[in-house]
Amino acid sequence: MKHIPRKRFGQNFLTDRAVIDAIVDAINPQPGQTVVEIGPGLMALTQPLVERLGKLSVIELDRDLAVRLRSHPQLDVVESDVLKVDFRALAQRLGVAKLRVAGNLPYNISSPILFHLLEQVDVVEDQHFMLQKEVIDRMVAAPATSDYGRLTVMLQWRYAMENVLFVPPESFDPPPKVDSAVVRMVPRAQPAQLDAKLLEELVRVAFSQRRKILRNTLGKWLEEKGYSGSFDLQRRAEEVPVAEYEQAAASLSAPTGA
User: Fold this and answer.
1) CB 13 within 8 A of CB 44
2) Rounded to 5 degrees, what are φ and ψ at 237?
3) What string of DSSP letters covers 111-142?
4) Is the preceding peptide bond at 174 cis, omega within 30 degrees of 0?
5) 104 among the known binding-site residues?
6) Domain Ribosomal RNA adenine methylase transferase N-terminal, which positions (predicted)?
7) Is the model's pTM score more than 0.70?
C-alpha cells in the first residue's frame, strides 16, 4: 500500500537515485560502524546505508512507517519523536562510545533537532543531514554576511561544518517549495570550554537588534554580568567572529576568586 506523505510530519521523500548515491558516498559508511538514521521514511537512504553497514538503527515517528521498517531484519527501529531520544542512552544500548548520525530532517523542526543533538554532542562522531539550503547557508556562514547569526555561532562553536551537496526540489516527492542541501558536521576535538547556556544568552542578546552597534545591546548585558575583558562594542553582531563570542562566554563562565 502506497504511503501518503504527511504534512504534520514534514514528510518529503527523497526519490532521485543519483542524489541518494551522492549522499551515501558523502557519509561513506563502513561495515560494522554504528550509524543512526533520523527519519528513514520509505528507506531511500536506509537501504543503501544498511547494505554497506550490515545493520542500522533508525528513528521514526510515523507509526505506519515504523511497522514497515520493523519487517526489515537488519534494522533496529526506535519509534519516537527524535526530540525525545536520549542519544547517550542509545549509544550505551548499542555498546559504543560514539554514534554516526544521518538523515533527511523534517524542515519544520530542523533547528530544534540540531540543538537537541548539540546538547549530546559528546556521543557523536559526525553528522550528515539533508536540510533546507537556507538553513545550511546560515550554519556555515562567515562573519559580516547576512546569513551569519545565532545559529552560526552556536553550531560553529562545537562543530566544523561544510555544505557538501546541493539538492533541488525535484529530487523529492512531493517536491518542497525550497532548495535543499547536505551538511557535514564534525564535532570539534577541543572546543572552547564555556557554559553553553551563557553563550546562548550572550549571542541572543547580541543579535536581538542586529542592525545596531553592540554598545546599545550587548554592552549593557556585559556590564550587568561584570565582564572585565576587552570587547569592541563599536560593531554589529554579525561582524564579530565566533572566537570572540567564545572568549567572552568563557571569561564569564570561569569561576571568580581563588
Assistant:
1) yes
2) -55, -40
3) HHHHHHHHTTGGGEEEEEEEEEHHHHHHHTPP
4) yes
5) yes
6) 19-189
7) yes
Q: Is 28 annotated as a binding residue?
A: no
User: Is 14 annotated as belonging to a binding site?
Assistant: yes
Residue 147 CA, distance from chain mean position:
16
Rounded CA separation 125/97 (Å): 9
Assess whether pLDDT exceeds 50 at residue 111. yes
Instruction: Give the position of cell 542592525.
Output: 211
HSE, side-chain direction, 13 A CA sphere, residue 51: 9
d(C-alpha 57, C-alpha 105), whole Å: 15
Q: Is 81 annotated as a binding residue?
A: yes
CA gap 172, 41 in Å, rounded: 12
141-152 residue pLDDT tens = 999 999 999 999
| CB within 8 Å of 214: residues ≥ 6 apart | 206, 231, 233, 234, 235, 236, 237, 240
216 assigned to a ligand binding site = no
